[in-house]
Amino acid sequence: MEIKDLREKIDLVDKDIINSISKRLELSKDVAKVKYQKNLPIRDNKREVELIKDRTEKLKESGIDDSIFANNLFELIMEKSRQIQEKEILKLKK
Q1: Which of 38, 55, 56, 80 is deepest in the core (most CB within 10 A)?
Q2: What angle do CA 36, 73, 52 make, to 5 degrees?
Q3: Higher pLDDT residue, 84 or 94?
Q4: Rounded to 5 degrees, what angle do the CA atoms 80, 55, 30 make?
Q5: What whole-number distance in Å separates Cα of residue 3 and Cα of residue 16?
């Protein structure tokens, strides 16, 4: 297989990753609405710890045994999710 072919495959996978992250972050708006309605805090430390533990294990099962990578990846995703939730809640308060 040529490098060009491999890069095209990587580009397709990256497109899937981008689409999945976009969908996940869009769901953050719905989460914000529920949290606002139920007067829940944006941050749920227990949920975040459980999520990172679970995703680290799932990555390990898929062959990626790197807890630092898993932690950093999902910390970034959750931080962006919290930012979106904060913006959405500000909109709802207006």
Answers
A1: 56
A2: 65
A3: 84
A4: 40
A5: 20
Retrieve residue 33's tokens: 């609405």
Residues 45-77 pLDDT 10s: 999 999 999 999 999 999 999 999 999 999 999
Q: Which two tokens stand for residue 20?
A: 């999945």
Q: Considering only CA atoms, which of 77, 57, 75 is closest in space to residue 66?
A: 57
Domain residue spans of the chain: 3-93
Query: Which residue shows structure tokens 């990555």?
Result: 59
Residue type, 12: L
**Superfamily for the 3-93 domain:** Chorismate mutase (1.20.59.10)
